[in-house]
Specification:
Elements lengths: L1 E5 L4 H11 L4 E6 L2 H10 L2 E4 L5 H9 L3 E4 L9 H22 L5 E7 L21 H11 L7 E7 L2 E3 L5 H13 L2 E4 L5 E6 H14 L4 E4 L3 E5 H12 L3 E4 L8 H4 L8 H7 L8 H4 L6
Parallel strand pairs: 1-2, 1-4, 2-3, 4-5, 5-6, 6-10, 7-9, 8-12
Antiparallel strand pairs: 9-11
Helix pairs in contact: 1-7, 3-4, 4-5, 6-8
């Protein structure tokens, strides 16, 4: 299958591209810079120059492919406006990709976060949030899944709060970055809230399986660790960086503060049983041992 991938040179995207190429697919990768184009080419993909805001380029990429995996997102969480702009850009891009695939029965695999379910681990049947700082992403993904009734084999891979590789990535990566800047490895509240996690290379396998097998209109959980307490995550970060570990105000995390403070474990039991996905790479706490001071 020839697959058009957005975000193919990031932490998750590079793992997805390698997984696709290693399993007989070819990849057309959106590349917003010359450096990204070189990275895609080096990985074995064909670069297509353009960014997420270049809707004509997205249309061309979708038309040249047998399927699409969308991963690109600006990941600018510096302010509420920045988050809103990133969500709006992604919404326009996904709407464009979906419209190009209507009536084709080709797969469109997109991404969202795992939802929170008070008092228990969330499952694949729980709806994603459609309000809050990133609620717009939930609304957009829901609209993409609804394209199942218009001849698109759409599916969503829900990623946990941290997708990691070699100690880098996700919300744990945000904690690490703030710790390096502030001199304190912090966690909001009492740190008992749990975050699910997955290794990037395990997540990549699930993206491929969704592309190849997922029925239209379905959602899947790329969750390996159901939920590590945030204070345990901060403790490893603090030990590896030689920093004190302590509770910090929720406001430390800007617009993501309410999400960081929430307990949000998640299950992937249905995904594993249905698609045969089985994570095999190190869990988050073990992977964070790779952090360097």
């Amino acid at each position: 299958m020839r697959v058009f991938v957005t975000g193919g040179t990031g932490l998750i995207g590079s793992a997805v591209v390698a997984e696709l190429l290693g399993n007989g697919h070819t990849v057309l990768a959106l590349a917003r810079s010359e450096a990204s184009a070189r990275a895609a080419e080096k990985a074995g993909a064909e670069p297509l120059r353009g960014g997420l805001a270049d809707l004509d380029v997205l249309r061309a990429g979708a038309n040249r492919a047998d399927g699409v995996i969308h991963l690109a997102f600006s990941n600018d969480f510096s302010s509420a406006d920045a988050v809103a702009n990133a969500v709006a850009e992604e919404t326009a891009a996904l709407t464009t990709l979906g419209a190009e695939l209507v009536g084709s029965d080709r797969p469109l695999v997109t991404v969202s976060g795992t939802p929170a379910a008070p008092g228990r681990a969330s499952t694949e049947s729980d709806p994603v949030p459609t309000d809050g700082p990133v609620g717009g992403r939930g609304r957009t993904v829901t609209a993409i899944l609804d394209l199942a009734c218009r001849g698109v084999r759409s599916s969503a891979v829900r990623l946990p709060r941290t997708v990691h590789d070699n100690g880098q990535g996700g919300f744990a990566g945000v904690l690490t970055g703030i710790a390096r800047q502030s001199g304190v490895s912090g966690y909001p509240g009492d740190g008992a809230q749990r975050w699910p996690a997955v290794h990037a290379r395990d997540a990549a396998v699930l993206f491929r399986l969704a592309l190849e097998r997922a029925p239209a209109g379905t959602a899947w959980h790329a969750v390996a660790d159901e939920g590590d307490p945030v204070r345990d995550i901060a403790a490893v970060i603090g030990r590896r960086l030689g920093l004190p570990v302590e509770s910090v105000p929720v406001e430390t995390y800007g617009p993501l503060g309410p999400i960081f403070a929430a307990d949000q474990p998640s299950s992937s039991a249905y995904t594993r049983a249905t698609l045969g996905w089985e994570p095999k790479y190190p869990g988050l706490l073990a992977d964070l041992e790779n952090l360097r001071p």
